[in-house]
Amino acid sequence: MTAETVEQFRARARAWLADNMPRIDPASPPAAYRDDERSWRRARELQKRLYEGGFAGICFPREYGGLGLDYDYQKAFDEETLTYEMPLILNTPTFTICCATLLDTGSEEQKKQHIAAALRGDEVLVQLLSEPSGGSDLAGVITRAERRGERWVINGAKTWSTSAFAADYGLCLARTNWDVPKHEGLTMFLVPIAHPGITLRRITQLNGSTEFCEEFFDNVDVGDDAVVGEVNNGWAVASRLLYHERRAVGQGSEFASGSGSEGGRSTPVDYVTLLATTGQVGNERVREMAGRVLVHRAVAEQLVDHVYRSVRDGTLPPAGGTLIRLFHAEAVTLDMDTALAIAGTAGVVGKQGAGLENGLRYLSRQTVCLGGGTTEMARNVIGERVLNFPREYAADRGVPFNQVRRGQSR
Ligand SMILES: Cc1cc2nc3c(=O)[nH]c(=O)nc-3n(C[C@H](O)[C@H](O)[C@H](O)COP(=O)(O)OP(=O)(O)OC[C@H]3O[C@@H](n4cnc5c(N)ncnc54)[C@H](O)[C@@H]3O)c2cc1C
Fold first, then answer.
1. How high does pLDDT run on average in the chain?
2. What is the DSSP letter of 86?
3. How far apart are CA 145 and CA 154, in angstroms?
4. Which of 231, 274, 292, 310 is least surrounded, with the fewest CB atoms within 10 Å of its CB?
5. Taking a C-beta distance cutoff of 8 angstroms, is the pair 121, 47 a contact?
6. Domain residue spans in the chain?
7. pLDDT (tens digit, 9 = 90+) per residue, 185-199?
8. Nearest Cα residue to 125 out of 108, 113, 142, 140
9. Number of alpha helices (DSSP H) and beta strands (DSSP E) in the chain
10. Is the shortest distance between the CB of 161 and ligand 1 below 6 Å?
11. Fold of 268-386
C-alpha cells in the first residue's frame, strides 16, 4: 500500500473534522480556562474523539498509540482544525513536554502505558520541577528520594506546577545521591498526583487564575517502575525535558495538536479591531506600532520552521530550540506592551471588548519570560551551547552537593 500523501491526509482530516468535531468561530473560541475542572473534562472528551477517529498523536509512534507521521502531516491537520473546538490545553505540558520526554527516555512499559493513555484522553501529565528555593537552578533541587527496602520514598516540595490539580501523573525530579556534584545525583520519577502522601494546593495569581499548584511530598512511596531513565541519571532526562519544553514554549513542537487560541485569557490581540474601537485607525504612528507586532508574529512563525529543520538536519545543535523560546517571549512581550500602549486608559478603566482585556492580559505579561525556563537562562543556553561562548562561573561546579552552601546567610 502506498503511503498517504500530506494532501490526501489533509482531505481525509477535513471530512472527518466536519462530521465529528464541534465547530467554533476562531475569533471567539469557547472559554477553556485552564484553572476550571470543566475545561479538563471537555478536553479529555475531545481527545477521546480524536483518538477514536484515528487523528490523535500524529507524530507519536504507532506502537504507543500515535500515527507515526511527519511534522508536515501535523501542520496540515492543524490548519484544518482552526474552525473546530480542539483539546488544546492537553498540548502543554502533557503531549509536547511530558509524553515527548517519556518517548525519548521512558521504559517500554512507561511509553506503552502513559503515552497511549494520554493520546486516548485518559491521562493528563504535568511537570513537578521547580521548588520554593528556586527554579532556574533545576539541577539544585532538594526534594529527596531515599531507598527504603524495595521502594523509593520522596519528601520535599514543588511549586508553580501548571495544571497539576487536573493531572494524573507528574514528572518529578528528586535528589537520590547527595555525595556527588549536583547533576550526578538526580533521578526522575513519574508519580501519581493522587498519592495520599501528596498535599496539593492551588496558587492564586494576580490575574485571579488558580492554574498553578504547589505540592508537598510527605513520604510518597513509589516503586522502581516510577523511575524514568536510570537512577542518578535524572539530569539526562531533565535535559531532554527542557529541550522539549523550550520548543513547546516557542510554539515549535510537532507533538502539539491543533493551533489557535485556547479560549482562556490568551486570545491574540486583533489590532484592526483595537485601532477601530479606540478611534485610532487614521493614526500613522499607532499603525506603525501595530505593524511592528504583526511582523514579529510572522517572523516567530517562520523561525519555528527554520529552527525545527536546522536542528533535525544537524545545522543547529538541539539547544537551538532555545532560539524560538526566546524569540517567542520577545514577540509576546512586544505584543502585550503595544496593545496596552494603544489601548491607553481604556486598558485600565474601560470595558471588556473596548480595551480593558489588554490591561488584564498585561497583568500576566511576565509569565512568557519565566515559564519553560526564564529568558535570561535561554540567553545563557544560546551563548554557551549554540554560540560556544565560555560557560558562566558556577561556585558549585564539581562540588559534592552536600558540601554546596545553600540558602545560608553566612
Ligand atoms: C507560565 C509558567 C508556567 C510554569 N510551569 C511550571 C511547571 O509546570 N512546572 C514547574 O516545575 N515549574 C513551572 N514554572 C516555574 C518556572 O520554571 C520558574 O518560574 C522558572 O524556572 C524560574 O524559576 P524561579 O521563578 O524560581 O526564579 P529564580 O530561579 O529564583 O530566578 C530569579 C531571577 O534570576 C534570574 N537568574 C537565575 N539564575 C540565573 C543565571 N544563572 N543567569 C542569569 N539570570 C539568572 C532568572 O532569570 C530570574 O529572572 C512555570 C512558570 C511560569 C511563569
1. 93
2. -
3. 4
4. 292
5. yes
6. 7-123, 127-240, 268-386
7. 999 999 999 999 999
8. 113
9. 14, 8
10. yes
11. Butyryl-CoA Dehydrogenase, subunit A; domain 3 (1.20.140)
